[in-house]
User: Fold these one by one.
Assistant:
Number 1:
Amino acid sequence: MQKNISLEEAQSLIFDYCPLTEKENNHLADTLDRILAEDIVARENIPPFSRSPYDGFVFRAEDTAGASEANPVTFEVIEEVPAGYTAQNAVSKGQAIKILTGAPIPEGADAVVKFEEVEVQGSKISVSKAFMHGEDIVPAGEDIAVGDLIAAEGTVVTAPLMGLMASLGIAEVLVYKRPKIAIISTGDELRDVTEPLAPGKIRNSNSYTLQGYLRSLGVEPVVMGICKDKKEDVAVLVEEAWKQADLVLTTGGVSVGDYDVIRHAADYLGAETLFWKIEIKPGSPCLAAVKDGKMLIGLSGNPAAAMVTFQLMTVPYIKKMTGRKDYCYRKIEVTLKKDFRKPSPRRRFLRGRMLYENSMVIMESTGEQGNGVLRSMLGCDILAEIPEKSGPVKAGEKLTAYIIE
Amino acid sequence: MQKNISLEEAQSLIFDYCPLTEKENNHLADTLDRILAEDIVARENIPPFSRSPYDGFVFRAEDTAGASEANPVTFEVIEEVPAGYTAQNAVSKGQAIKILTGAPIPEGADAVVKFEEVEVQGSKISVSKAFMHGEDIVPAGEDIAVGDLIAAEGTVVTAPLMGLMASLGIAEVLVYKRPKIAIISTGDELRDVTEPLAPGKIRNSNSYTLQGYLRSLGVEPVVMGICKDKKEDVAVLVEEAWKQADLVLTTGGVSVGDYDVIRHAADYLGAETLFWKIEIKPGSPCLAAVKDGKMLIGLSGNPAAAMVTFQLMTVPYIKKMTGRKDYCYRKIEVTLKKDFRKPSPRRRFLRGRMLYENSMVIMESTGEQGNGVLRSMLGCDILAEIPEKSGPVKAGEKLTAYIIE
């Protein structure tokens, strides 16, 4: 077991045990936020045929050679095609067909003129300028050509991607199954939100915060409930959770004051503890243990500490598990809005929100930064890093920030 | 009916008919992404009791008056309190109690010292400095005090808010019901993704893109299917959709070339058309009509045009309907990454994505900007505004951009 390692070392240790979830075929309409388990490659052109960009008349460009205001060319309109229909006839010399925006260009025609640019006399139109071959016609495959890669395996399905797949005739999509992740809350002091509070007891908030974050990540949470600080009880519940879920998360019991119940439970189960404690603040107390390829990640019982470790260490792991290729958080540079007065002997992550001011990204603290203060996770969309052995950070200084979920 | 109005005028016209959806009580675990229909006010303190910030011993501060390395004070340890339990005894003169991080401060005690800072000899400890009243003790209500407003009505429920509500004992939450929004796709040329494609036909992508966006907004889509370009058919389907849903969206049939089938269907139904066409590009062809307080919003059939109008005009309306107080899009200033070479006689919105470079927000085009090109909605998270009567825009110029869903 390694102890007091860096965040990056911890990630690398757990990434070695990251089973991909299975794949399943879903109907297109049920793919929002799912992760592609196949490349989406165009099997059709968009548009599927050459089409008109506006309401007008199509004809042979060569028939307009030499045409001018003074010397217009006359065409016989042989057909009028409604939207959604194709011309019955091909266009021959001296003929034109009236079509609408988006309509397929009839055979023989290779130029289009707007309604308002011709003079109509009964079934005849006159065109007073010369056109070139293909002029203004939208060629088949202009937006998307057969063989184009639209979205790679591991991409999250968004609304416009659903639309694109629909336009390409892709009705069934291979996606990764939603993984199941179990949540165990340890602590003799914990009461569920539905229970009355007794002296010395506090409410279990971590289970609900984690349920929310897991659902946001497209994961099905399996709530195992509250467990006493007894290694045998924890071990029984972890074993049961491993049967039901792909990953088990615990909160509490990972620091010395908690009697290290999670580490002892892992030993008791014969699991290998990969590491204990990482060098960040908040969120240092945590561990990962593995048995038969199944992972247990133990988070702090302190709400803010738990969520910072969850975001920085566990979210990339979960995203990787769900099949996402972009599983690492996005790092950006931000400018600190107000002084942060405390020194940072250890590598520290500040909770904050992004503000956009004059084309700049400003980071504003979301409040009190204590280990236990969940309130400052409200509205928090970035964690800004202060390197170890730093003094106070002044307003206007630049920090690297990690965009969180 | 007003014609060719501004985006803002169009919004103001439809906002006048924006029925709020009903309210319902949900269990806390089922509130993610729902909109609060009540203020969340703390009815308890967090922490609920004064507690110790670390593993240590508590005692009366006054007993340490004059204590020093040379002249330590000795306490009798009368009890050891496990996590989650409260002391059985009060602390009197000369007494101390051993407690763990987070444990409630026993009656009588008003100072705490860390384990590692005392000398233990059997049941006695010696403390070698003077403490002040309340020193290092976390007072009840330090994070959240009874009466604090945690989240206002109209706020979206996030994971940390779920956790905070759990910690405050709020098991049932009043939220707005998910509205139902119907989607009708008009066009003789449309085929569903599951149907074979015939000459001159194209696939219906708008219905799937809209389903995705609606689900992202927490709305239940009601898919009414494809309708021919015939006002009577459209009218029947709109009436049916109004019965099933709180809002009806159509795509197609809103420009002259489409025979204006939506406007004629609205007239046929006796609905009042509020406006037809707005002055933006893409997405100019659109309309809104109302009958008996129910709204019909007609979007373009061109995929990109439809989605730009949907994002700019319809999303704020839908958010308002769902009870959100932050229903207007967030506007930020961005710096254009590459030249946009076309002039913009009309107010134009460019599709792009935000890049963060050196603390700046850069906008990169997501591709071809044509009315019909859905592909550039992929990865699009902002729409950047170019004012009307603008020339080409150069790389490095600043634009106002609207953050979209």
Note: Chain B touches chain A through 95 residues (CB under 8 Å).
Number 2:
Amino acid sequence: MNPDLLQANEKYAANFASLKPDMGRFRNMMIIACCDPRVDPYDLLGLKNGEALIIRNAGGSAVDAVRSIMVPQHSFGVTGEIAVIHHTDCGMTKVTTDQMRELVKKANPARDDVAATVDSMDFYHILNIEEAVKNDVKFLSENPLLLKGTKLSGWVHDLETGKISKVVESAVSA
Amino acid sequence: MNPDLLQANEKYAANFASLKPDMGRFRNMMIIACCDPRVDPYDLLGLKNGEALIIRNAGGSAVDAVRSIMVPQHSFGVTGEIAVIHHTDCGMTKVTTDQMRELVKKANPARDDVAATVDSMDFYHILNIEEAVKNDVKFLSENPLLLKGTKLSGWVHDLETGKISKVVESAVSA
């Protein structure tokens, strides 16, 4: 990690008494977003440290987020809205599961074990962002592993304008 | 989503011309951190929007992050350091996989399908934060699905002081 990041951390720690987050400011909400460097859920929504639980993975996949939703719901009483936010120009619209499998196999030509593992993986390719948001919210709404009644919303974050637009609202009903 | 968050997004979009992130400021690094509301990788390291790819899940598990690491590595040329950052007082130290299974089954008493699904899930319980960081970095270093030579580092983020401390450095060697 670059020295300037470590210096920034020292400054952060030096001023920590006034910054220290606590669960008192938690809004009882979860956000699922992409790990893309251009996505910053704090900036995007004016969120301060401590206000939201934020899950991020390639594409902002709800399927990939299930474990991370279940733990706070079932163990720590986090019952609030789950907002699924996908963004335009997402990398997951640019590479398919089949292409990912080929790329990984090419990087490991002599490894049958790698080929078998990657062939068993789904990379959650996105064909259409709005459809993917709808599908992810539908997936959560029908998932009995989650707390029944949890409010769900699905959003598209436009990287060209910085605006978020609501695609769908729902609730866990399984 | 609360109206004040949507208002904050309108402000963000209104000032977007000067804020718009681009990959020009990307530091070619990935961060894996926990989804806990008290963890904010931007504040913690003084990172600005666009500088890092940030994966977040319950516990900051590297095992859970593999798909999200593979896509940018194999498809988008993200070859830089992966920093695994776990934090003190993590929820994953407070609930075991067995306890999670029991909680979910109790919430769905008549569902054998739910019981079977949750029994097949690993929730990546953490016994000791430093050991978990070491194990996660070791897991990545030995993983042939990742790009050979990728720099790895493992850190503990102390929620009481705001300081991060390096636990381990390594590289992908599989």
Note: Chain A touches chain B through 84 residues (CB under 8 Å).
